[in-house]
Amino acid sequence: MSLIDGLRYRLRAVLGARRHARDAERELRFHLDLEAAQRRHDGASADDAEFAARRQLGNRTAVAESMRRIAGLGWLDATRQDLAFALRGMRRAPGFTLVAALTFALGIGGATAIYAVVDAVLLRPLPIAHADRVLDLELVRREPDQDGLVILYASVPEFLRWRQQLRSFSGIAASEPTRTVPLGAHIAGRAPWLPSPNLVHVTPVTPNYFAVLGTAPTIGYGFGQLDPADTTARLAVLSYAYWQRGFGADPHVIGRSIVLDGDAYTIAGVMPDRFVFPEDTQLWTSTSDIARFGTNENTFAFDVIGRLRDGVSPAHALSEMRTRFAAETMAVRALRGLQVAAPTVRNGIVQDVATHLVIMMACVVALLCIASANVTNMLLVRGTARRHEIAVRLALGAGRGRVVRQLITEALILAALGALAGLGASAVVARFVAGESSLHLPRHSLVALDVPVLLASVLAAAVVGIVCGLVPALSVSRDALESTLRNDTARHSAGRARRRLRDTLVVGQVALSVVLLAGAGLLLQTFRHLMEIGPGVTADGVLTADLDVGLPVQDTLARVDAARRVGERLRALPNITDVSVSTTYPMGGAISIGRLRIPGRRLPDSAKDYTVVAGIDGHYFTALRTRVLRGRGFTAEDLARRDIAIINEALAQRYFAHLDPIGKRIDAGYPVPLEIVGVVETTRSSTMVPEAEPTTYVPLAAEGAQNLSVIARVTNGDPTAMEPTIERAVEQAVPGSQLYHVGPLKALLRYYAATERAYTMILVGFALAALLVTAVGLYGIISYSVTQRTREIGIRIALGAPPNAVGRGVARHGLGLAFAGVAAGGAAAIMATRVLRSMLYQVAPGDPSILILVGALLVAIALCASWLPARRAAAVDPLVAIRAE
After folding, report:
1. How would DSSP label each residue in 623-673?
2. Regarding beta strands 283-286 and 199-205, do their DSSP bridges make them parallel or antiparallel, or are they unpaired?
3. Distance between CA 819 and CA 778 in Å, rounded?
4. Which helix (H) or strand (E) holds 306?
5. At what angle do helices 848-874 and 754-788 cross, to 10 degrees?
6. What is the pLDDT of residues 615-628, one digit of tens each?
7. CA-CA distances (angstroms) from residue 801 to 126, 630, 664, 753, 885?
8. How far apart are CA 256 and CA 264, in angstroms?
9. What distance in Å separates the CA atoms of residue 700 and residue 642, rounded to the nearest whole number?
10. Which helix H or strand E contains 613, and what residues bound it?
11. Residue 184 in contact with residue 258, Cβ under 8 Å?
12. Of 1-15, 28-42, 390-404, 767-781, which one has max mean pLDDT?
């Protein structure tokens, strides 16, 4: 028989096992009949001939089994027997089965959920033709006091230079930041971080945007027929999902009109299904009139992408960009201090979330390891209790490999049950993570428990099942027969090596729990700090808004006067105590960055040579409850001056550490140096950087009052209830003016801290699951130890040992395991939490207070887990224990 014929024969036997059994039976019957006929021909009687034929053939069952093994069915029979035996054993121990399956469900379910997110965000290909040939063209600024680079949008002049001069790219396109705009007429009012109906995510792009991406609309012509010189055309392209939801998948939608924020656009196309770039975009509009952004080199308005020419490598393109940019910085002062970068589009998309997702994946792997260690310990305990049974099987001729396979089969069934039970939890977790908008996950709509994710779940279940079953199987099968021959029983104390293994697994669980809990504690501290603007701001009862007074931005005096009138009118309202009309407010409004110089002094190389600049009125610090630490605030007479400033404590400590800054002068890019008249408490002024930055406050007229904001402190009740009253008062003070982005300062803080809160809650959830599994495992191992040592404990008490001393010994065992795990986990946490550095704010990795708190928590849990077994040990009746043996 050839190799192919043999494989074909075995395949038919496996797929048609019943048919093969009937064929084997007929073949055996044929050989028996043939042998019996030969015997009858030789003169034997029919009975003697039948008996002789059977004796000649041998054991018929053994022959049939041999034929099944030759056909490749032996493993199928053995597997069927192992499965049946394992299921019967699990039915006899439902409690053990339930706890082990739920433990596996926590680990495998969590790993499946996070892998579904990682697969969708990091692993799947982008909906872009040859995505590795499309680069993000970026301007970056290196911050000396921070890790990594700050990525900026490109200015209009820089985009035009790239498009005209770079020869490494076949096409360069740009998009503006995605905006949330209302459908229909312009709607003033609520802030974007507060719920609003009828909003759509719009990304304005240049006409060649889709051509550079290599993707064309499935319906319509897109922007391909748009004349770049036509700056008046208003075209829109719909995403596939928005076309289905907003237009009922109407195939005749092309040519229809849609009104966005009061402007009418003609629908020119529908993009392919699942093409969403940039993320969350529902509608793209054409941007031909880029001249409206002006020629200011400091106006970073565009996100630029470029497709490489054939044969050009990314390294060559970046080299060309750097060469040209070096020449540009000599001629353009505003570009000095900046660099260029050109990562691939994929890296540009995922660079903000890749580290977070890898950390989450590491957390669920740690949870899976804790769950696996717990189940391994349970199987070790169960295997020790079954040593007599296993020894009998070995004595009756079962091979050790057969016994090991049986025990691994039981572990695989538990893992499979856990994976099935965890699918529901993983679906919930994956849906939560994907649907949590505050995480800002790119391509979150692709997150699903599809075939690749389910296959990964099956693989994880198989791996942990084999690993968790192999260790107990090898340990128990090695010692079972020897223990029985020594007349040892399953209730005697386990061997020292096996006990050390169980203790080591418990210590490992505690150590991993320390790492997870430490990480969760650090993120909780970060979230708490992010919810604080600073010691000098009380956010309760504060309402903030951006103000449009409807006057030309060049008319500074008229805008300052309008701000004064708005402030006076609002301060006259009941239930309003303080009002400030300035250019900024904490975490919002408008700020500018100025180059900082101190006349007559050379700044240290390690210092940042910039300051945040904000224009304020005389009521700004009063409205926010910010204290003036030295000097004075602005008076009404100061608001028209352009030569004075107030600095925050961060700037004073950085540049005037051992000097009194009052009366000193600084150069922040204004026509004249500014005299410092006061120092105030440090608050966070920017949403981009959580650290408190050096800040300079100047009178409103000095900053130009181009952007205005309102801060109103409400004395009683919900500040949002005052929104209509404030909006009417603003309209009365300056006709034609309006407020937008109106909302409580507390809501603004929650909005900007939402990402950290979401990641924190996810990690806290995994840490609590790990803590639960560890506590159960610790209780189980100590309880089992007491059960195994019942005879020893009874003898000790019979010989005079105080019961309380016996109980304390059991508790010491549990606490010893906990202390060892806390020590190992603390050392690991100091190193592991360093990867969280980019996610932390005002708390350091390995913070001692967090580690001490986590250690105390785990020791307390270990004490509780040891208390009941210790009490049971102290209550052992020595006569009952010895008689039971």
Report:
1. HHT--EEEE----GGGGG-SSEEEEEHHHHHHH-TTS--TT-EEBSSSSS-
2. parallel
3. 12
4. strand 300-308
5. 30
6. 888 888 888 888 88
7. 71, 72, 80, 59, 20
8. 10
9. 9
10. strand 610-616
11. no
12. 767-781
At 427-473, the pLDDT tens digits run 888 888 877 766 777 777 778 888 889 999 999 999 999 988 888 77
The answer to whether the beta carbons of residues 391 and 484 sit under 8 Å apart is: yes
Q: How far is CA 307 from CA 131, 137, 158, 835, in A?
A: 9, 10, 17, 33
Q: How many residues does the chain have?
A: 885
Residue predicted with more confidence, 320 or 479 = 320
**Distance, CA of 620 to CA of 639 (rounded, Å):** 12
Q: Does the pLDDT of residue 80 top 80, yes or no?
A: no
Sort strands 235-238 and 263-270 into parallel, antiparallel or unpaired: parallel
Report the 10 Å Cβ neighbour count for 259: 13
CB 815, CB 866: distance < 8 Å = yes
Residue among 558, 564, 573, 550 at smallest CA distance from 728? 573
The one-letter amino acid at 700: L
Other residues' Cβ atoms within 10 Å of the Cβ of residue 666: 23
Helix H or strand E encompassing 115 = helix 94-118
Whose structure tokens read 């029979």?
77
Q: Do residues 744 and 721 make contact, with C-beta atoms less than 8 angstroms apart?
A: no
Closest CA to 814 of 852, 774, 841: 774
Q: Which two tokens stand for residue 719?
A: 């500040």
CB 342 within 8 A of CB 318: yes
Q: Is 145 exposed, middle or buried (0-12, 13-18, 19+ CB in 10 A)?
A: exposed
Name the range with the highest mean pLDDT among 555-559, 619-623, 666-670: 619-623
Q: Are strands 257-260 and 263-270 parallel, antiparallel or unpaired?
A: antiparallel
pLDDT > 90 fraction of the chain, expressed in percent and rounded: 4
* Distance between CA atoms of residues 767 and 484, nearest Å: 42
Contact 364/114 with Cβ under 8 angstroms?
A: yes
The residue with greater pLDDT, 197 or 509, is 509
Reference 86, options 406, 458, 472; nearest CA is 406
Which run of H or of E encompasses 767? helix 754-788
Buried b (16+ CB within 10 A) or exposed e, 370-401: bbbbbbbbbbbbbbbbbbeebbebbeeeeebe
Average pLDDT over the chain, rounded to whole? 78
- Position of tokens 């505050």? 438
| Distance, C-alpha 491 to centroid of its chain | 47
CA-to-CA distance for 642 and 636, rounded, in angstroms? 13
Kindly give, in sequence order, each residue whose CB lies less than 8 Å from that of residue 365, ignoring residues fewer than 6 positions away.
Answer: 111
- The owner of tokens 């507390």 is 746
- pLDDT at 373 exceeding the cut of 50: yes
Going by pLDDT thresholds of 50, 70 and 90, the confidence category of residue 493 is very low
Lowest mean pLDDT among 482-486, 489-493, 710-714: 489-493
Q: Helix (H) and strand (E) counts for the chain?
A: 27, 26
Neighbouring CB atoms inside 10 A of 94's CB total: 9
Rounded (5°) CA angle 472-476-482: 165
pLDDT at 463 (0 to 100): 92
The distance in angstroms from the start CA to the end CA of the chain is: 61
Distance CA 387, CA 482 (A): 10
Separation of alpha carbons 5 and 362, rounded Å: 48
Rounded Cα distance, 89 and 80, in Å: 14
Q: What is the pLDDT of residue 649?
A: 87
Give residue 524's identity as a one-letter amino acid code: L
Which SS3 state, helix, strand or coil, does residue 252 take?
coil
> What span, in angstroms and rounded, lies between the C-alpha atoms of 186 and 654?
45
The reported pTM is: 0.72
- CA-closest candidate to residue 872, choices 778, 794, 774, 776: 794
